[in-house]
């Protein structure tokens, strides 16, 4: 087997690539993929490198879907959703690989994002909702506890309720919402998946619950015992207990919450989406571009995206068929090495080479990174090297499953 060292360009390789770019058009040979490296990473997991005319370099992790010991997990900078700074994909992998479990085999960058802690789209991990859905509702990958994979066209928030000890309910407006984005009058729940504190800055009411019956999913109500009630400016930036939850209200929502609870009360909290399957997924991540559906290029779904976005860029995408799950990174913006792929070229590669039934585009450009066994395998396009990102999709070996 080829050892597949991290890619380094020689002068001869650069010359060959440039000549190939001049002589051969990518569009005429889009599926003429040559496997330049292939090796087994773990039982049922292969690492494969493809070279296409253009030149285009493609880096693939292929996972046997019958291997139940493998699972997917969202990895976060600083190990939490409410990160103060983004981290490189390799840094996130190193952070999670140091834990007793899981064993991280490979990873790719995940969600689209803004400045910390802005994550774009719906996200669930470890069986609970971490980032509420919001507009615009893009395509979302869902992974279930039985290994089921699917893409849903859009997930939208439905809100929720807070059930007080006397049976009355209050409307729950948001879950794990960035404090700077909160409307003036609002009630929001912050879970342990959010971070160490709420990060809120305005006066209001903060009710801390302990002994919370996690996970937070659309199909169940979690309950917790009230251990502290803070009001006024003391409600800002309230700590989150290890198995706790904080209900934070500001504006006109603050008084009803403060008046409705006492220490020792058992309070119920529920937050839902408009997609029952999404709310119960073990992992969910929103992308932008449903590239292949039912084994065919899904061009009708691309029309909402501008041509500049559908054009040729470095890419990260996930694809699968009944037998195999693929994580794919395509290098780009490096003419001597790799020029990237358009949506149409991604669809051609996914169907012609991978024989994928479904494919979803994740964040690309300078973010596109594949880490295998702790090492970056591709050549990220940023001039400074690997770009810090908001999260990563981790392929892990789960201690609770066996082949």
Please characterize this protein's 3D structure.
The model is unreliable at 9-31 (pLDDT under 50). A hairpin with a 2-residue loop joins strand 7 (123-125) and strand 8. By secondary structure, the chain is mainly beta. Helices cover 12% and strands 36% of the residues. The strands form 5 sheets. An 8-stranded antiparallel sheet has the order 1-2-3-23-22-24-20-21, with helices on one face. It has an 8-stranded mixed sheet with strand order 12-11-18-16-15-17-14-13. A 5-stranded antiparallel sheet has the order 4-28-6-25-26. Among the domains are: 11-63, no CATH class; 157-273, Jelly Rolls (Sandwich), CATH 2.60.120. It has helices at residues 11-23, 89-97, 254-260, 276-279, 307-310, 343-352; strands at 34-42, 45-52, 56-64, 70-75, 87-88, 103-109, 123-125, 128-131, 140-143, 149-152, 157-163, 169-172, 174-175, 186-191, 204-210, 222-232, 245-250, 266-273, 283-286, 290-293, 296-297, 315-320, 324-330, 358-361, 370-372, 375-376, 388-389, 392-397. The chain is built from 6 helices and 28 strands.
């Amino acid at each position: 087997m080829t050892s597949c060292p991290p890619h380094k360009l020689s002068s001869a390789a650069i010359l060959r690539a440039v000549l190939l770019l001049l002589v051969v058009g990518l569009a005429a040979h889009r599926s003429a993929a040559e496997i330049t490296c292939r090796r087994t990473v773990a039982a049922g997991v292969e690492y494969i490198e493809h070279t296409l005319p253009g030149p285009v370099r493609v880096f693939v992790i292929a996972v046997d879907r019958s291997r139940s010991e493998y699972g997917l997990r969202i990895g976060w900078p600083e190990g939490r959703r409410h990160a103060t700074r983004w981290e490189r994909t390799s840094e996130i992998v190193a952070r999670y690989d140091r834990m007793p479990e899981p064993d991280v085999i490979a990873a790719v960058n995940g969600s689209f994002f803004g400045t910390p802690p802005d994550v774009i789209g719906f996200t669930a991990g470890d069986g609970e909702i971490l980032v509420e859905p919001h507009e615009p509702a893009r395509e979302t990958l869902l992974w279930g506890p039985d290994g089921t994979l699917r893409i849903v066209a859009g997930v939208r928030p439905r809100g929720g309720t807070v059930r007080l000890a006397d049976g009355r309910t209050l409307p729950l407006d948001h879950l794990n919402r960035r404090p700077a984005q909160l409307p003036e009058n609002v009630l929001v729940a912050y879970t342990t998946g959010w971070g160490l504190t709420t990060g809120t800055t305005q006066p209001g009411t903060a009710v801390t619950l302990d002994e919370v019956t996690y996970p937070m999913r659309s199909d169940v109500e979690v309950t917790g015992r009230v251990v502290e009630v803070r009001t006024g400016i003391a409600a800002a930036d309230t700590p989150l207990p290890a198995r706790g939850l904080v209900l934070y209200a500001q504006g006109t929502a603050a008084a009803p919450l403060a008046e409705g609870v006492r220490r020792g009360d058992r309070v119920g909290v529920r937050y839902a989406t408009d997609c029952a399957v999404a709310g119960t997924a073990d992992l969910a991540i929103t992308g932008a571009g449903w590239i292949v559906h039912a084994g065919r290029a899904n061009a009708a779904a691309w029309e909402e995206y501008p041509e500049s976005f559908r054009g040729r860029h470095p890419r990260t995408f996930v694809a699968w068929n009944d037998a195999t799950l693929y994580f794919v990174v395509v290098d780009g913006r490096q003419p001597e090495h790799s020029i990237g792929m358009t949506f149409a070229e991604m669809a051609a590669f996914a169907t012609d080479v991978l024989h994928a039934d479904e494919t979803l585009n994740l964040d690309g450009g300078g973010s596109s990174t594949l880490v295998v066994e702790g090492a970056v395998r591709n050549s990220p396009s940023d001039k400074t090297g690997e770009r810090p990102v908001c999260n990563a999709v981790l392929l892990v070996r789960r201690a609770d499953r066996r082949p």
